Amino acid sequence: MGGAVSAGEDNDELIDNLKEAQYIRTELVEQAFRAIDRADYYLEEFKDNAYKDLAWKHGNIHLSAPCIYSEVMEALDLQPGLSFLNLGSGTGYLSSMVGLILGPFGVNHGVELHSDVIEYAKQKLDFFIKTSDSFDKFEFCEPSFVTGNCLEISPDCTQYDRVYCGAGVQKEHEDYMKNLLKVGGILVMPLEEKLTKITRTGPSAWETKKILAVSFAPLIQPNHADSGKSRLVHLPPVAVRSLQDLARIAIRGTIKRLIQQEALSRGGSGLKNPPRFKRRRLRRRRMETIVFLDKEVFASRISNPSDDNNNSEDVEDERREEEESKPSELKPDPPINFLREKVLSLPLPDPLKYYLLYYREK
């Protein structure tokens, strides 16, 4: 799946392309996509493909195409404080983006069949929390992952505001998926080769919308050959935050508001980083012949003796234009973590400062 938009040179350019193609349509979704670099969820030897609009699979590790994740995030209509269940949570990439929107009072759970993928997801989550400046720009709802088959979730589990299934669902399992939703909740899943959005409008009432045609690997059926018994999946309990943790959230929120107010008074943009500046090379393309054939257009180039001279002149012109533009180019300053700087400047004991920063070393 994928290939709907052009590849990007980096994560931001990929998001620019997804916005231009109307896969990303809301500011909340855009912020979440920009905050987490897709390449961080690839194995090192495959990172060259991270910014292509293509799915990636290596062993049990899998990432859907960016255009698919964009449609999923938009269809879920996420809001702070909601509960979210990710069936087939994989690398945790989607769950982490969702967590940036849910905020500290949301619920973020994932079920993954393969234990090695759970370990991979935990490593990537730990890397994000410890190293990403985006962690300090949001209040994060950290995902919790459990191992098991998502078709064997315990019947006494809580229901969720939002549910996503990342594998193909057959018609026979549609009601099972629907029952995971609260009234007013939204379920997004590939159902019979269509990415489908289902909204629970009442105890027994549903609205269904087909989003786009997709091709997903089907859900793996439970295997009871060994014991003959179902292995029920027990989802994590909904944790109640401690008073100390609530105080940390409140203090960090207050500091962020102060930073924003100070930046606005100076005409700045607060916690946001300066805009990126990227050079776009202009490439000259010459087409001497255009042929119309059966509603298609073919452009062909007729060579002539002066082509070689013209090509060399074009290359020289491009080189000269680039040289002339260098002095006027603006390069962005390195990103500044304003929250971290403000916390470290407070007249507080070091242990309290580091607690407010979640003991992050960066």
Descriptive report:
With 362 residues, the chain is of the alpha/beta class. The protein folds into 2 domains: 11-222 and 230-239, Vaccinia Virus protein VP39 (Rossmann fold, 3-Layer(aba) Sandwich), CATH 3.40.50; 241-263 and 336-361, no CATH class. The chain has 11 helices and 11 strands. The protein has a 7-stranded mixed sheet. A two-stranded antiparallel ribbon has the order 1-2. It has a two-stranded antiparallel ribbon with strand order 10-11. α2 (27-35) crosses α4 (93-102) and α8 (243-265) packs across α10. The chain is globular and about 60 Å long. 31% of the residues are buried.
Kindly report the spatial arrangement of strands forming the biggest sheet: 5-4-3-6-7-8-9
Query: Care to count the β-strands?
Result: 11
Describe the largest sheet: 7 strands, mixed
What integer value in Å does the Rg equal? 25 Å
Q: What is the highest CATH level, the class of the largest domain?
A: Alpha Beta
CATH architecture of the largest domain: 3-Layer(aba) Sandwich
Task: Calculate the terminal CA-CA distance, rounded to whole Å.
Answer: 36 Å
Q: How many distinct helices?
A: 11
Oligomer: single chain
CATH superfamily label of the largest domain: Vaccinia Virus protein VP39
What percentage of residues falls in helices of 4 or more residues?
25-40%
- As for the CATH topology of the largest domain, it is Rossmann fold
The global form is globular
What letter string, H or E per element, gives the SSE order? HHEEHEHEHHEEHEEEHEEHHH
Roughly what fraction of the amino acids lie in strands?
Answer: 15-25%
Note poorly predicted spans. 279-307
Family: Belongs to the methyltransferase superfamily. L-isoaspartyl/D-aspartyl protein methyltransferase family.
Subcellular location: Cytoplasm
Region (Disordered): 302-335
GO molecular function: protein-L-isoaspartate (D-aspartate) O-methyltransferase activity
